[in-house]
Write the structure tokens for this entry.
Amino acid sequence: MIFGLVDIVSIAFWATLLAAGVRLAVSVGMAALGEMINERAGVLNLGLEGVMLIAGFAGFAASFESGSPWLGLGVGFIIGGLVGALFAFLVVILRADQVVTGLALTLFGIAFTAFLNREIYGGGSTPPRAPKPGVWEIPILKEIPIVGEGLFSQSHVVYLAILITVLLIVYLRRSYWTIVLDAVGEEPRAADAAGHSVVAVRFVATVVGSSLAGLAGALLIVGQLGFFNTDIIAGRGFIAVAIVIFGRWRPGGVALGALLFGVLDALQFRFQTLDTAIPFEFFIALPFAVTLIAVAFGAKNAREPSALAVPFFRETE
């Protein structure tokens, strides 16, 4: 057996796993929610990794220099939106290829943050530490078996991410803007004929989605780790894109997919503590592999927005 029987059946094991899984899910989940908004408007952003890195580094620098992690989170959110505006200008207004532009943004983000980190903070093996938000333990509720530690004894940033997720789920279900967003992503010509600016909706959606991706990078780097290095995002931007497909472009499904990845990520850390002959790289790859398999099988009948990654040209042009 991989774990001892006492470990697996104990409440403490599952409580600890859920708590770690929720913590690890919030950043990738926030990025996936941002990408979901982009894609429902017809914009595919494969530059999430770059957005998370650039915004996360900016948030770390603000937090380290000011001593305020909350300022760092705010800066990450704003910088993510600014990078999203640049991306939107290229792919929505200039109609550059979305796939190529997104991949270029990711490569730029990796190189740019590596350069800044080396020039400003030395880029050494012992990076400087920034302050992190504290933990909020909710009395009574934290004593609930299994879910108490996972949901009611977490960092403030986890509660912030959960609150944003719930608000997005409610808003996207009930708002008129969601109808317009989906119309632009499904039938942009019909939306244009109805008097809605496809360019404006896609531009705003891209900025909003990238702001959430920037916040996701700051949640990981500022809110949870408190330090920066160039490989800190570790593919989570691309996993966020996969989670959007798994969640069928719906916020509830996306949140569930993020939680699945978070729990698997927490489980691989537990696996690495075992004394086995299996290389630790296998365990590191496990959550990514299982998530991609879940996407392949769980989204067989999922239908992407019809105009996803398709530039919009008005008939009068």
In short: The chain has one domain: 13-133+149-298. The longest strand covers residues 135-137. Confidence is low (pLDDT under 50) at residues 1-6.
